[in-house]
Amino acid sequence: MTTLNTWVPVPEKSDFSIYNLPFGIFSKNTEAPKAGIAIGEQIVDLALVSELGLLDVDAGYFKKSTLNDFIALGKEITNKVRLDIQKLLVIENSPLKNYPEVFVLQKDARMHLPVHVGDYTDFYSSIEHATNVGKMFRDPENALLPNWRHIPVGYHGRASSIVVSGTEIRRPMGQVKTNDMKAPVFQASNRLDFELEMGFIVGKSTELGERVSTKDAANHIFGLVLFNDWSARDIQKWEYVPLGPFLGKSFASSMSPWIVTLEALEPFKIKGPEQEPEVLSYLEYEGDRNYDIQLEVSMSTSTSEDITISKSNFKYMYWNMMQQLAHHTVNGCNINVGDVMASGTISGKDESSYGSLLEISWGGKKPFELKDGSKRTFIENNDTVTMRGFAEKEGKRVGFGEVTGTILPSR
Q: What is the pLDDT of residue 132?
């Protein structure tokens, strides 16, 4: 990665370095939402930069409330915009120095969901997570279901309840039945959980009947976000047989506001886990297709400050994004710009890297302690969960900021 120096002040260890420049949608005061790029603690207003004649894309694309139409222009154009902004933030005689109004402090801005999400798919692609769940609920000796090593298992989720980071989440209500109950009861979930995930944003649509190969998949992925797929374990347990998750998952998912482009993450590609048995031909791929992205989850309460409860890494994924997209479309299912594909819970190889409270507390059997001495197995009202992620190599950092959400009591 070439060393770059920007004239914009960027704090040390900032997620939004000159090597990153992620896209998002922001608003200030009563202004309408529009597109920006993050650099350090600031946002570059892309509409204003375009109006100055410094970008080849019409300002109208940047004045929309989502990035969908801009992304749909294609990578040749979107990549050029990012690189043009990078150049403007590096060159000594940059014309942007004469237009301070182009920069907005992030602390003064409100962030919005960056894309209109038409469809959402959640995968189940961490072998460590799937194994832990299988040990808890099925057979400790044969934790994985027979199909797990053959296909990237996934399900179609609810796009309408994906919200931007910072949105408060109401504790869901639903049917719950424990083993000692004769009949289900209607109540608020008392086994509310988070799921540490990453999601990728589809950047190129396909037609019905068209398939995307693992070789071409990267051309259909615009970038990545942090993703918390909240989960009501007790509601899910009662409903998921025979058709899978429904109300236990559809009440909310939280997404980080900045989309980090696949191109910014190129230096952090890494070899994935060995896949045994050999996959079918349409799932074969070449080169390094996993990404070394460090992840962490922290929790705070109304009486206790933030404490880190998990540290994991995106590199652990058994099924990579290229395989997920190839499998998703192998039957001819069409995809659209703005669709979100989430990884599924990302767990590592030991207890410190588990990506859900279901695993951290081992189904509620192992409470953990917060800084104020209180204990948790699952999320209680007014608890806040925050996820962070970044990639770093040779002193150069590309990060995602954070995705956070606070749980409110049920209505």
A: 97
